[in-house]
Amino acid sequence: MAKAIAVTDTQTTPQWRQQPERFWTFLKEVRSELHKVVTPSRKEVQATTTVVIITVFLFAGYFWLVDAVFNRMMQTLLAWLTH
């Protein structure tokens, strides 16, 4: 019953009239969320940057190794199949 009343309530108000109210509500919510944002300290930025750089090099080494192994396997297989 309450759902039916709520549905008819929104249907009586044209959608174009709801847009400005929804827009201002959105802006208020954005402002309240921006107040929660915390800028990291220099020490935190340096620590996370170091972790990212180390991780990138570790993954690069891993993929180089996997690529070298598969390359060697393919060369061996192709050499065996062509003889």
How would you describe the overall organization of this protein?
Helices cover 87% and strands 0% of the residues. It is mainly α and 83 residues long. It folds into 2 domains: 1-37; 40-83. The chain is elongated, with a radius of gyration of 30 Å. The termini are far apart. The model has no long low-confidence stretch (mean pLDDT 88).
Would you summarize the structure shown here?
With 83 residues, this protein is mainly α.
For the largest beta-sheet, the strand count, sense and barrel status come to:
none
**Low-confidence segments:** none
Strand content: under 5%
Q: Radius of gyration in whole Å, from Cα?
A: 30 Å
Count of distinct strands: 0
Identify the notable features of this structure and list them briefly:
single chain; 83 residues; mainly alpha
